[in-house]
């Protein structure tokens, strides 16, 4: 029999602290949809996704209702589009993307990830097709998300690829200038991309994955933040160790909820249960913020000295709690610090407390990287590429996933406020210092060799 | 399974103090009896105990009750009731959708427990555990219930939430596994739990 105090503490977490499951992402292998003719390819793609995913939303809602826990987002991820687009051109890429967009809408999911290219060591014809089509694809579709892996511990950093990404990002921004460059928010550039990530825009299905799998993203930082505030309000003398313990316990419980729901959704869908991603993903909702947690931990201005240490502690405690809760941990599993999606971080940028360089330092101890950062629209492609290169270096050398989601906002200057709407939030445009001073470095091109860490065998 | 063939169910109530269980169990033992199962609760300073007792030879339930009553020490008086235990297991639910937890929070007023329990009774939903507590003006009610498999959980949730809203109460009906998962070391009560429940 359950104890009353157990029921009450869970009820508090569910209803007062708004615990939810952030995303249930159904990952599908679509390699069997390859076809020499693009119409045929799109037809197979549509049939396959429909057959597997048409019940996803209904099942998530049913299971969520049974446990009284809302599943906020339902999403799809596919094997990299580049694998199907080898031998095709940009028109085929666009046709495929539009098919994905339509079928995602029919399945009532908000995003479909996997318009992806893996180019850490070199660019194949399919990869080239994906990357070159991105300005049109991201401008002309709503739900399609893209990711490009340009670096890995084993391969090093493909500077040619990230230089290309610098130019492509500017083209995407121009193609979506009417939406303040919003197309760039649906594209993530990675080092060490995880193959089972449920979070957008970087979700895709890796080559070692099963035919289909359900991957779960757990609830956001609001739950952790509330638990910390409640503990502090009790008035006892607490150390950072006590607060880390509180985060760990909360993370355990949050992860358990994710796994419970994920396993049942997978079972009802008749597919494998993949992983629970322990990441704390903020939303623009006030309070659901990593910045808020840092404030609760005593950093009154986000970006002040101590911010990196606080994020490190948070990230570590979340992982420790989550690891014991689930034997199927994967994805990114770290605290995200996406600026526009986190109201407190965006505010810190606006007040001048948080600068790009400090954010970069914070990403070396958490997930995921320079995420949802608006930069001036006139930032040169080489400077964007160099910003990506720095973040990739952090990932490659530290053997972790890092990612960059920069939005060069056409016509905007540092300090202008841009609003991307909904989950993407709003943010002041961040200043990029020393813009234009890295051109020669990037233009050398080639590949930064894999670091010593690659030679572990 | 009982130790001896003649089985009785006994209920003891008293104001709470140390030594009640010791006194009751001594009285049972003095009749050559065995305690097969027991459960106690203390609420508002009062102690209550339910016990399944078996003995080798039949005894008069009232005599057994009297023996236990007499064991009461000095200033405490035990109210004791004994009756022969049912030979079958009593109420057994049909196929269930599993065990669910109803929680209700709101400003206290007479009739809360009645309204909810009458609704559940009308739906043939068995309450297996019930807790209620008034703190300040707030009342909390937690019921653990077994829901027959044929009910649509969403309909029950809507009914209960509506009833709660009429009373100014926040009411939730959730499968127990969410509480197991968030508080205990295992994800669900039984390893087959998910498979079993998902089948419905």
Distance between the termini of chain A: 50 Å
Instruction: Please give the share of residues in helix of chain A.
Output: 40-55%
Percent of sequence in beta strands of chain B: 35-45%
How many whole angstroms does the radius of gyration of chain B measure? 20 Å
The total strand number of chain A stands at 14
Helix segment tally of chain A? 15
The CATH class of the largest domain in chain B is: Alpha Beta
Indicate the CATH architecture of the largest domain in chain B. Answer: 2-Layer Sandwich
Q: In which range does the helix fraction of chain B lie?
A: 25-40%
Please trace the helix and strand order of chain B, writing H or E for each element.
Answer: EHEEHEEHEEHEHH
Brief characterization of the structure:
Chain A is α/β, with parallel strands linked by helices. In chain A, 45% of the residues lie in helices and 17% in strands.
Description:
The complex is a heterodimer of chains A (457) and B (200). Chain A is α/β, with parallel strands linked by helices and 457 residues long. Helices cover 45% and strands 17% of the residues of chain A. Chain A starts with a helix and ends in a 9-residue tail after the last strand. Chain B has 2 domains: 6-84, ACT domain (Alpha-Beta Plaits, 2-Layer Sandwich), CATH 3.30.70; 96-198, ACT domain (Alpha-Beta Plaits, 2-Layer Sandwich). Chain B contains 6 helices and 8 strands. Chain B has helices at 20-30, 61-70, 112-122, 153-167, 177-183, 193-198, and strands at residues 6-15, 34-43, 46-55, 79-84, 96-107, 126-135, 138-148, 169-175. In chain B, helix 1 crosses helix 2 (61-70). The two termini of chain B are 31 Å apart. Mean pLDDT of chain B is 89; it is low at 191-200. The interface between A and B is medium-sized, with 27 and 31 residues.
